[in-house]
Amino acid sequence: xxxxxxxxxxxxxxxxxxxxxxxxxxxxxxxxxxxxxxxxxxxxxxxxxxxxxxxxxxxxxxxxxxxxxxxxxxxxxxxxxxxxxxxxxxxxxxxxxxxxxxxxxxxxxx
Length: 110
Fold this sequence. Notes:
Blueprint: E1 7-11, H1 22-30, E2 34-38, H2 47-59, E3 66-71, H3 73-85, H4 90-93, E4 96-102
Parallel strand pairs: 1-2, 1-3, 3-4
Helix pairs in contact: 2-3
């Protein structure tokens, strides 16, 4: 039996739609990851609400391990996702492994 590949969820930043992460997504596919692009309305809803949508998105991914790569505001969305989801879903949180954030503010949303 062939083991399932690990997944990477790419989360774009403010004013983006996900197309900006296409090259990275292609490179991750080439080295064997299953990739998923989480697209969210970055200017319409606050990061917490988008994090709840990210939770629904991750619930539909069948992979033993999920990594996150986020840019800018996407890093805050993922941070809210971890903060809100981890206490409720201990079994699922064991499959969340790596968060790479680029240019994400650490002081939060204002």
